[in-house]
Amino acid sequence: MEAGRPVSLLKKGIDDLKETWPGEPDRFQEIHVDSFLLWCVKRNASDITFQTSRTVYSEIYGVLYPATNRSIDGADMAAVVSRIYGAEALPILAGGKDIDLSYEIMIDRTHRTRFRVNMTAILADGRDGIQITMRVLPSSPPTMKTLKVDSEILKYWKPRQGIVLVTGPTGSGKTTLLAAGCRMLIESLHGCGKMLTYEAPIEFTYDTILSRRSLVAQTEIPRHLPTFADGVRNALRRKPEIILVGEARDRETISAAIEAGQTGHIVYATVHTTGVASTIRRMVATFEPNERTERAFALMETMRLIVTQTLVPKIGGGRTALREYMPFTEEIREHMLNLHFDKWSAELMQMVPKYGKTMESSAKEALDAGLIEKRHYLIYAHGTKALKDHREETKDDDTIDQSY
Questions:
Q1: CATH class given for the domain over 151-372
Q2: Domain with CATH 3.30.450.90 in the chain
Q3: Which DSSP state fits 250?
Q4: d(CA 133, CA 139)
Q5: Does the 7-137 domain belong in CATH 3.40.80.10?
Q6: Average pLDDT for consecutive 10-residue bins of the chain (404 residues)?
C-alpha cells in the first residue's frame, strides 16, 4: 500500500487513475480552474471535490482518486471560489449559508461542459474552511432508451394531468431520469407544448433538443425566483401544459403542486424518499395535523406515477440503475381513497408487487443478468434469511462490505 492510498485503488488495469493533474501549478489561480476541471472530465470523473487542507479528489465510477499532489490551502480555495461564483461567495459562506449553483465552461461556440456545484463552509484543521462539490453534467439530457427505462414507466410517464414523482436518495440519478423524461416529451411526435421548469440549480438544458411543437423555459431557484412554491404559483399564471419542480420538499411546494395537478397541468417533481409507500407517507406528513386529511386525499387524487431509483455498482465498473415504480390508475386511486390515509403506507407495500415493480424485483433482474453482485442484491431482498444464508456461505470471505 502506498502512503494514504488503499490497495483497492491500485488494481491492475486502472493504474492510469492514479495520475494527478500534469499541469498542477505551485499555486491555484483563477486561470487554472477551467483547465483542471476539463482534465478531470476527460478522465471520466463524475464528481470533483475541493476541500481546504486536502488534495482535490475526483470520483470515477464511484471511487475517489487524488487529482492533485498538493493539498489546497486558503489562498487556493479563494481563487477557486472566486472563479466559480465570485468574490461575494466568501461572505455568504462565512454567514452560515451554503451555495448551490451551476457552472459552465465554453469549450468553443457549440460545445460546453456544465457542472452542478455546492459550496459549504466546514472545519478544516481547527479553522474555518470550505468544501466545493462539483457534479459533471452531460451536455444534453440522455434518452429514456439509453437509461433502459422499463416500458411500463414509459407507458404512464405522460398522463393527461396530475403528478409524476421521481424519488430516491441523494446521488441516485433522479434529475437525470427526469431530464430524460422531459427530452422524450419534447421530441414526441406532437411535442409537449409549453414546459416550465423550476430547478436549484439548472443541471440539464434543452437548447439542443429541437421540436417545433415544444417550448421550454427554465427558471433557477433562488436566482430567478425565491422558492419552488413561488415557482409553481408563477407557472399557473403562464399557461403551461407541463410544470417541472426540481424538488417537492415542503408543505408549500407540495400544496402548490397538488393545486397545479388539480387544474389540468402535468406536474413532474423529485422527492428524497426511497420507495413508493414511503413517498406518500413522507408527503402526507409535511402537512399540519388539522389539514392532513384534506391534503392527503387531494394528493392521492392527483397522483399518477411514482418511480424510485437508486444506483448500484456494476460488475466490471460503472453503476446500474434499479427502479421501483407503481402507476396510480383510476382504480388504484379509488381504492386508496376508500381507506384512511393512515393505512395507505401498508396497503401500498402490498400493492406495488402486484401493480408495479419492487426494488427487490429490479435487483433480482440485474443479478440474473449478471450486472450486479449478489451482496448488492441482498440489500434489497425482503427479510433477513437470504442475507443470513449468504453470510454463512461467505463467512470466511471478507469481501462483503458491511457498510451496506
A1: alpha beta
A2: 7-137
A3: S
A4: 19
A5: no
A6: 42 58 94 96 94 95 90 95 94 92 84 90 94 88 94 96 94 92 94 93 84 92 88 92 91 92 94 93 93 95 97 89 96 96 94 95 95 91 50 45 34
